[in-house]
Specification:
It contains ten helices and 14 strands.
Amino acid sequence: EMPPSTLLSPSELSYLHTSLSLDPPIRPDARSPTTFRPLVAETDLLPTTNGSARLCFADGSEAIVGVKAEVERTVGASNTSNNVRSHDDEDTKMHSAEEDMDEERRRQARGKGQDSWIEVTIDMPGFGRDDDGMVVFLAQMLQEGLVADGGLRDRLWIGWGWHWRIYVDILLLTAPNSYPLPLLSLTTHLALLATKLPAPISRIDEDPLFNDDWDAAEPLYPSSGSEQTSKPPFTLLVISVGDNIYFDPSREELAVADAVCAVTVGTIDATVSTGKRREGKPKLRLLSLRTIDPPARLAAAASTIEGEDDQGAWMPARGGMKRGIVGKMVKMVLEVGGVGEEVMTGLEGFYDG
């Protein structure tokens, strides 16, 4: 499912495809292959949510995301309070009681999160039905990334028998001028980064009690010193034209793309990593990769069915993506100082929490 195709003529499409295939390439707006369109963003704009964000691209496309959380009882959970107390007794030898409880909660939460604790809904103008193909596909893509980041699920575990359920409500304020997946994903990333949950004051083997002071609320993604040890996942849209790779494609560039790929990345806590990164700096990891049929290929298939004569007009290449192109895309996103790290660093500037 892609947004409506451009109004470019076959000759204009051919010229654009040739320009993007050159070495060095020439983009219509003079951006480099890895440069994103200018954007503005803000966080904490919806007072009744646990976290929220608004993001607007230079082309006028805009989205708002609100995150709300509620406490639910975990079905089928077992209580192992004896083991919990034994761990606490050992930890009190080195830490205070409050630090023990936080550390124990984090240790016990590992691997206990469930996919069903995360719910994503999308509302888009012009798509009145919730089961519209575009809406369902985008929601599934975003849900896939959040679920693949197992750390988010585990963060929602409160204690034996209780958990947080978070609702990620996404509203696209404008009709999509281009494929809206990056816009929605980056806005969701910011909203989750700004999300805070009430601080628990009960033990993990007790019914949950929380601090009523919102100033004492804990970030869903807490910081460690001056660096975030973990960050929400996000999805980037990447296209290839010939042997060239482009990030954040415009509507016109999507129209002549040979291949379109959605790359979802998350982070690894660098404090437990043995890599060569600086202490406390999160390291990126690939969560999912999905190819998407470009608009040109869909239009070409329709023309073939209708029996139109396209002789002399530019036609998209047939077949799937080359392995070398896929590998190059992933490398450009994940490498140190690469596109993924640049995007995370840029988004941090909009969040002052």
